Backbone:
């Protein structure tokens, strides 16, 4: 009975002083493509963040219902919805982080590059609006082919005179999430402890997990390295084939994108210990864009973690050299598209 009394007292004093979840900061996040397969679960996960005060959902269709649904969750952020190009500027005003999962997903038999013709223009138009309305925001590009859409975004921002390479990110977190999961399964490790850096790009052989840098330190046979690397590189295709025409990864992608958003918000909030892999304008090698581990801070990329790329195994060094021509071609394709359609 005593413990019941104590609980009742605690509850009433909490409501008497208006106790609500503590919000340590308040950031606005916009999701462009919010009613899609990734957009919906991603919106839900971001709605759960204590760091978010405003969640701006934008799509060309069906976003009003998604927003009505989400707005009933009793978490701090206010959910606003915006439909179609006329409302895009309003969706972006005052936003700190913009996430772009707008565009078409793969079907079996397609490469990510097969999406270029559909998605390049979508990303270009959306990033133009970002440049005009929230040029200081962190921009997270999910739309494929990421190896080309990020260089397109960079060119658009340059043409608008607002390019800050420290704030433009291709989201490759899903590659890290997959690598961590597959390595933990294979080596019977506790999932929460495993961290595998994944570098390069986000398509086929350009996805390069650096298994020798796995934490906690673990040894692999040559066969394990080959099998794990190929599985991580083909994991997107594994999902595309399992979904058999109904799209590509959405739930695991939303989980990964939410992790990258949360890391960005923590960095914006002043946390000085935030590291993620992402595909960014890079200085770690001769390629102008490259995914590797970066340190995030209030102003975006604060540093590149070069140590991941030092002391690679022969397998990793060879794979790194082998991916460069494909990644370079994808970057050049994106830049050419952006400049042609100026
Ligand atoms: P989807 O078709 O389910 O959803 C896409 C959404 O984008 C739709 O709601 C659509 O209305 C919207 N959209 C289309 N044009 C738009 C525009 N101009 N402005 C705003 N919204 C627009 O697709 P999905 O499964 O959510 O995948 C989206 C993209 O993410 C695809 O290109 C896919 O290849 C990519 N993807 C990337 C990763 C990654 O790791 N980076 C992982 C999975 C999927
Ligand atoms: C993924 O890695 O799951 C995405 O890039 C989607 C795809 O087409 O594979």
Residues:
């Amino acid at each position: 009975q005593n413990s019941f009394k104590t609980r009742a007292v605690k509850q009433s004093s909490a409501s008497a002083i208006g106790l609500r979840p503590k919000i340590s900061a308040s950031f606005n996040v916009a999701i462009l493509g919010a009613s899609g397969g990734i957009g919906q679960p991603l919106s839900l996960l971001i709605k759960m963040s204590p760091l978010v005060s405003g969640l701006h959902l934008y799509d060309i269709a069906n976003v009003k219902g998604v927003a009505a649904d989400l707005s009933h969750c009793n978490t701090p952020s206010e959910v606003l919805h915006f439909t179609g190009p006329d409302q895009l500027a309003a969706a972006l005003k005052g936003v700190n982080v913009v996430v772009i999962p707008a565009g078409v997903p793969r079907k079996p038999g397609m490469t990510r590059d097969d999406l270029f013709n559909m998605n390049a223009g979508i990303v270009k138009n959306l990033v133009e609006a970002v440049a005009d309305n929230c040029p200081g925001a962190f921009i997270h590009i999910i739309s494929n082919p990421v190896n080309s859409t990020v260089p397109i975004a960079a060119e658009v921002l340059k043409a608008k005179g607002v390019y800050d390479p420290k704030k433009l990110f291709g989201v490759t977190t899903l590659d890290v999430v997959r690598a961590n999961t597959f390595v933990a399964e294979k080596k019977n490790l506790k999932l929460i402890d495993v961290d595998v850096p994944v570098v390069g790009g986000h398509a086929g052989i350009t996805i390069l997990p650096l298994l020798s840098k796995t934490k906690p330190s673990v040894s692999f046979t040559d066969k394990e390295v080959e099998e794990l690397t190929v599985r991580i590189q083909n994991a997107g295709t594994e999902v595309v084939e399992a979904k058999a025409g109904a799209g590509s990864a959405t739930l695991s992608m939303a989980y990964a994108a939410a992790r990258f958003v949360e890391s960005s918000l923590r960095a914006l909030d002043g946390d000085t210990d935030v590291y993620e892999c992402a595909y960014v304008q890079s200085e770690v090698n001769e390629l102008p864009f490259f995914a590797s581990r970066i340190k995030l801070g209030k102003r975006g990329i604060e540093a590149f973690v070069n140590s991941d790329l030092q002391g690679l195994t022969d397998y990793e060094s060879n794979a790194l050299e082998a991916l460069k021509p494909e990644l370079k071609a994808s970057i050049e394709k994106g830049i050419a598209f952006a400049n042609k359609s100026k």
Summary: The chain is about 45% helix and 15% strand. The pocket of (2S)-2-hydroxybutanedioic acid (ligand 2) is lined by residues 105-106, 112, 144, 174, 236-237, 239-240, 248-249 (CB under 6 Å).
